[in-house]
């Protein structure tokens, strides 16, 4: 029909979660995350009905996994860092991506993404920024070109002393996926530094999960890794 599902009012059930310093209406329903910034709320499905967005946040943080989202909630991360946190719980669905796009366009806040250091985490990162191949026609409604990669980088293990036992060898399927992603023209044209990190992952032949950064202390991710990366601008 040469139009997006957005124009046809086709809405899928949302899978994403949000918490942090933001308040808005979805129709007549109020989402008051500010009253309890470390409590998770479902991402609203009817994004076109959202209005009156208010925030005192300094930035938006997108995390790949619900387990990391929950760790940030348990550590009262939003209280200490005045941010908004969103997770798509893996590959983000359409409501999550549309909602994130709306927040960035409306609030003009920096937006950072934290994913596992593996081919699938990298693919999730590119889905947020550039959209997916299956929904390429809808990229203008779903992509977030402002998003920056906070981590985890293939170069992080040496910098943050990740033990070798936390590094897993890339499988044959992992290597095949990386090689295919390296051929994507937009990586070379728009985010060449991302492509260099992806090549480094393939060269080193290892991957690791975000949780590996907290192997020395559970609070390392929330108290050191994320704040230091943002404050020192160690993002790409």
TrEMBL record:
Its EC number is 5.6.2.2. Its cofactor is Mg(2+). This is DNA topoisomerase (ATP-hydrolyzing). It is found in: Nucleus. One of its GO terms (cellular component) is nuclear chromosome. One of its GO terms (molecular function) is DNA binding. GO terms for biological process: meiotic DNA double-strand break formation; meiotic DNA double-strand break processing; reciprocal meiotic recombination. It catalyses: ATP-dependent breakage, passage and rejoining of double-stranded DNA. Residues 59-230 form the Topoisomerase 6 subunit A/Spo11 TOPRIM domain. PANTHER family: MEIOTIC RECOMBINATION PROTEIN SPO11, MEIOTIC RECOMBINATION PROTEIN SPO11-1. InterPro entries: Meiotic_Spo11 (IPR013048), Spo11/TopoVI_A (IPR002815), Spo11/TopoVI_A_sf (IPR036078), TOPRIM_Topo6A/Spo11 (IPR034136). It comes from the Eukaryota. Keywords: DNA-binding, Isomerase, Magnesium, Metal-binding, Nucleus, Topoisomerase.
């Amino acid at each position: 029909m040469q139009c997006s599902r957005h124009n046809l009012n086709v809405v899928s059930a949302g899978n994403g979660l949000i918490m942090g310093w933001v308040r808005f209406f979805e129709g007549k329903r109020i989402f008051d995350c500010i009253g309890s910034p470390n409590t998770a709320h479902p991402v609203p499905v009817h994004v076109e009905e959202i209005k009156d967005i208010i925030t005192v946040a300094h930035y938006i943080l997108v995390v790949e996994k619900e387990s990391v989202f929950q760790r940030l909630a348990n550590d009262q991360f939003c209280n200490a860092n005045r941010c908004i946190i969103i997770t798509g719980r893996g590959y983000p669905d359409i409501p999550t991506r549309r909602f994130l796009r709306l927040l960035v366009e409306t609030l003009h806040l920096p937006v950072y993404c934290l994913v596992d250091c593996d081919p699938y985490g990298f693919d999730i990162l590119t889905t947020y920024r550039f959209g997916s191949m299956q929904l390429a026609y809808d990229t203008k409604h779903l992509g977030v070109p402002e998003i920056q990669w906070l981590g985890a980088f293939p170069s992080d293990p040496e910098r943050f002393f990740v033990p070798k036992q936390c590094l897993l060898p890339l499988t044959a399927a992992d290597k095949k996926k990386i090689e295919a992603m390296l051929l994507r023209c937009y990586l070379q044209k728009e985010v060449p530094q991302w492509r260099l990190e992806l090549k480094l992952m393939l060269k080193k032949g290892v991957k690791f999960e975000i949780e590996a950064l907290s192997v020395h202390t559970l609070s390392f991710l929330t108290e050191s890794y994320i704040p230091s990366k943002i404050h020192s601008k160690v993002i790409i």
